[in-house]
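cron nightly-structures :: item 1 of 1
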Amino acid sequence: MKFEYYNDTGRDISIHAATESSGITCDMSIIKPLETRTFIIPTDTYPWVKMWDHGELLGLCILVYAKKDEVN
């Protein structure tokens, strides 16, 4: 499955290293303003997304994590 993120923040966004370690494939370079980034999500998972703002020094960071449905 593909998940696309469009950067409309006007700021550069770094991608958290845990994005790749969760099994997602993507270009890990900085997402520039007005750029779209495609994340390839593993089969039988869905994207869980979190973004942090570390202020002017470190900027924005996004984590796209591959989650599985938990059956209770």
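cron nightly-structures :: done
Residues 26 and 50 are 16 Å apart (CA to CA).
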